[in-house]
User: Fold this.
Amino acid sequence: MGMGLVVFSLFLLFLHHTKGEGFNAINNNANNNRSRVLATSCNWFRGKWVYDSSYPLYDPFKCPFIEPEFDCQKYGRPDSNYLKYRWQPFSCSLPRFNGLYFLRKWKGKKIMFVGDSLSLNQFQSLTCMIQAWAPNSQISYIKRDGLTSVSFLDYDVKIYLYRTPYLVDVVNERFGRVLKLDSIRGGDSWKGMDMLIFNTWHWWTHTGRSQPFDYIEDGGKTWKDMDRMIAFYKGLTTWARWVNRNVDPFKTKVFFQGISPTHYEGKDWDQPTQSCTGQTQPFFGMSYPAGTPMAWVVVKKVIGRIKKPVYLLDVTGLSQYRKDAHPAAYSGLHNGNDCSHWCLPGLPDTWNHILYATLFS
Assistant:
């Protein structure tokens, strides 16, 4: 398929899905058995944020896994209401998260998050949520370049993070760094897991000095650059082929995190002069003004073609409402205004709460 045809096809798909269909309508589409597997009795992703004084689910000062870039309370965020919001699906309620139950059910298992810093966000959230239920459990916490692990030794549960911003490879060649859209060498490290939670998107938008490659290669051809949505589509298609070839669905559950939104531009929620800085409440409208991001459409299209069972954690819509949940200036790592990552405790806890619901409901 030529690049122009890919763009046109994605554009038509985008128009089709945004005419009267919300983020969750496609998750219940009877034609897409990969996405409907765990959404038949309840659509976890369609709901509203409600204030709950019993939140957060853990004390950030008692969790040893939170990176400075997400530790908003430690680095001076003065408000705390953002910690108190609970996601309430319209048609049901999420089961109460129970970290001990999680550990007992996954005893002897290995879980791996694969992706960029949003995967790090979710990985640290899950380990904190579980550790709050088993504070006296022996823990092994190992950080290596590109691979981090937290093992709950009393339960023989291992949770890994494999850092790879594109899922596909970036390779150093003699003429420069090359993003190879048709290559996944790192995939050997993902094999043998009992659960895989993949994520990629944010780095595909980086250009100039912030992008970690000089060229893009696909099918033996090399470009200085190309339309990033096309590149994303091609790279994600390579990942889909990897899943089809390498995942045994009787051994491994596969999830895709979905598209995590940013809140740099207040026009997305009809406040064009603002960003996430100073936001203390979620967006409470019924429909997010910015609408469905194109990257979400690409993810749905690619996942819909995978032959193996892959469940989409469709976090985009519920996360778009949380303009208040970013570190902004209260980060121990990022200078300036971080409207991309999320404070911990915070929104990624809900992503993991839904993951828990899909596993145990």
The two ends are 40 Å apart (CA to CA). The chain has a mean pLDDT of 90. Residues 86 and 230 are 36 Å apart (CA to CA).
